[in-house]
Automatic annotation (TrEMBL):
Residues 292-393 form the CS domain. SUPFAM superfamilies: HSP20-like chaperones. The keyword Cytoplasm applies. It holds the Pfam family CS. Keywords: Cytoplasm, Nucleus. Residues 276-295 are annotated as: Disordered. This is NudC domain-containing protein 1.
Length: 628
């Protein structure tokens, strides 16, 4: 159900990269000063925020757009709801409503307020949260201030509970359903949590607003809760699918149905975990598992060549090295007597993964006499230019299955790894302190930055919830939930007919666009629709990305947060013109010139010319971008 299966025909292993396509920034970007400044500051409590709460605040989109009228709303630093309208490319602003400022007290010092926010529920109604437990329903007038036609509170244990608005839709002409989340008073014990030390829990609720009950003289009332789910993370995305009358909850945890009584998965203790022996491995003999040697070589490739770096003792004479290139095989013979701790690779007519051109291939020997090891470098020209080798040799074995070094500058660190390894054997030190013995060759572990890897997308689960009562739809089996890495969702503000429900999911280095195919009463299917090759790889280098969104059929947009006096960029990665194109286009635009402040929200409107406009809400500016 939740598996995202790629179509091989839509993958492109021969993709080379993104070429810069320069856009005219003066024509594409327009900056407008905000008369009512936005802010990302909230009143802090005496207890620290959990990781989930901090992550939710960083990715909170402060801007809401009505796709039908091209109006936008946000909450300014004084808790005023600001309505933004467009006459052509020029925005105008007016105060819609001024929410009461929350009062800080000892009783609320341990409670973390949410960001105040506003959201359209049609062209004439806006709902707004003050971040302190109150929800206001406002009727949008043609001019002047609005007065609340409904006020609701989320009460728990005798006090209001701050909540975050995620999604809202009209379930009928007279009813609105809104999905909100709040931190639960309960927490998950350490033994039941995926996170070390236990975890906070978060309640996800759907509330109903009866439009017939609204009026200017309504008193404050408690929310009408339709259903509640609970999970270890705050949802990322909670859209409603009309054809299935169900919500999707996408978040860093699942949100189990409390009526099903699903037991928590058993988590083994450290003493119960034992390694699974590889083929021909003796688990009783642990010397090599505790102190594994580095790989016998490192390698990298371009579109037309493969380069191999083999570490050898510096005392090796060039006359003792014999290398023979043939179209389908490689021979490397080194006549050097070494100790058992020094691996000397020897290959005799070893079949290659693909063919090469012997006449254009060569080798060099760099002794590096001041070090214990030098490097024998083999440069092999590919016969089939553009073909990406999965490994050097056709068959693996005897430590020959070595991962590719993606950064060529790291290629020659193989000699340093071998030197550290042999030194650790001599002095009996633990090689793990050298970066060895982590289950990966040292060369590969030097390339894999866990922090960067974790920042590319977010691990997510997908839970289906029946909108009417919060039950589990009959076609959804919660046991089939499989975590995936979410790279992007659809840009807010796009008209419904412009896009289907789409998610961009990480698949190795690529970003795969999956569209939902849903038919009444039938099991929905996520279908691989298109591919943005290597987009996960390029996004890994964007360390300050705040929002990543998909414009279906056009591009993936990555927005930097900016802040202080440093302007932020918008990175545009366009879809290749054809599936097997080796190159695609990318563009970079400066969103902020250093004067606007941090990026707080983004969305889309449609200009009078029918062209898409990107709105970027900064603390002191509203930026419009066209030409995407």
């Amino acid at each position: 159900m939740t598996a995202f299966e790629p179509k091989k025909s839509l993958l492109n292993p021969k993709f080379e990269g993104y070429k810069l396509a320069v856009m005219d920034a003066e024509d594409a970007v327009m900056r407008h000063s905000l008369p009512y400044h936005a802010t990302q500051a909230t009143s802090s409590g005496k207890t620290p925020l959990s990781f989930q709460e901090m992550q939710s605040r960083i990715t909170h989109n402060h801007l809401s757009i009505d796709a039908e009228t091209n109006q936008a709303v946000y909450v300014d630093s004084e808790h005023r709801i600001i309505l933004t309208e467009f006459n052509g490319d020029t925005p105008s602003y007016r105060i819609l409503y001024e929410m009461p400022l929350p009062v800080q007290s000892e009783a609320t010092a341990t409670i973390h307020r949410e960001y105040p926010s506003a959201m359209f529920i049609g062209s004439t109604l806006v709902i707004a949260s003050d971040g302190d437990g109150s929800l206001y329903v406002l009727s949008v007038k043609n001019e002047g201030l609005s007065t609340p036609v409904g006020t609701y509170v989320l009460a728990s244990e005798g006090r209001n509970t701050p909540f975050k608005i995620h999604y809202s839709h009209r379930s009928s002409p007279t009813s609105v359903v809104t999905v909100i989340s709040s931190k639960s008073s309960a927490s998950l014990p350490k033994e039941s949590s995926r996170r070390p030390g236990g975890s906070s829990l978060f309640d996800v609720r759907a509330i109903r607003i009866n439009l017939l009950s609204l009026g200017p003289n309504n008193t404050e009332r408690e929310m009408d809760v339709i259903w509640t789910r609970q999970g270890e993370d705050i949802p990322i995305y909670t859209p409603y699918v009309p054809s299935l009358d169900s919500h999707i909850l996408v978040g860093g945890s699942n949100y189990p149905d409390p009526t099903l009584g699903i037991s928590t998965p058993y988590v083994p203790s450290a003493d119960e975990i034992a390694p699974i022996p590889r083929a021909n491995e003796n688990p009783e003999k642990s010397d090599d598992t505790v102190n594994p040697p580095p790989p016998p070589y490192s390698w990298t490739q371009t579109s037309d060549a493969v380069t191999i770096a083999i570490p050898l003792p510096s005392a090796t004479s060039k006359d003792n090295i014999r290398v023979l290139f043939s179209p389908k095989s490689l021979t490397v013979q080194v006549n050097y007597f070494a100790s058992s701790s020094t691996p000397i690779p020897r290959y005799s007519s070893k079949e290659l993964w693909d063919t090469m051109s012997p006449s254009s291939s060569f080798w060099t020997w760099d002794k590096e006499a001041e070090r214990a090891y030098g490097v024998l470098t083999l440069h092999m020209e590919k016969q089939n230019e553009g073909t990406r080798w999965m490994q050097v040799f056709a068959t693996s074995g005897d430590n020959d299955d070595v991962p590719e070094t993606l950064d060529p500058s790291e290629l020659y660190k193989i000699s340093e790894s071998l030197e550290k390894y042999t030194a650790s054997l001599r002095d009996g030190s633990d090689s793990s302190g050298l970066g060895l013995g982590a289950g990966l060759p040292s060369l590969a572990s030097g390339e894999i930055d866990d922090e960067v890897d974790a920042s590319v997308g977010r691990q997510a689960y997908l839970t289906w919830v029946a909108a009417s009562n919060g039950s589990t739809p009959p076609w959804f089996d919660p046991r089939e939930q499989v975590p995936f890495t979410l790279l992007a969702t659809t840009l807010p503000g796009l008209k419904e007919e412009v896009h289907d429900l789409s998610l961009v999911v990480k698949n190795n280095l690529d970003g795969l666009v999956f569209g939902l195919e849903a038919v009444d009463g039938e099991k929905p299917v996520w279908t691989h629709a298109s591919t943005y090759p290597a987009v996960a790889f390029v996004l890994a280098s964007k360390r300050d990305t705040r929002f990543t969104y998909l414009v279906p059929g056009k591009a993936i947009l990555a927005f930097e947060s900016a802040g202080q006096s440093r302007g932020g960029n918008l990175y545009i990665y366009r879809r290749p013109s054809a599936t097997k194109d080796k190159w695609a286009k990318q563009s970079i635009l400066k969103v902020d010139d250093g004067q606007g402040g941090s990026l707080l929200g983004v969305g889309a409107i449609t200009g009078k010319d029918g062209e898409l406009r990107i709105l970027c809400l900064l603390e002191r500016e509203l930026v419009t971008i066209k030409g995407i």
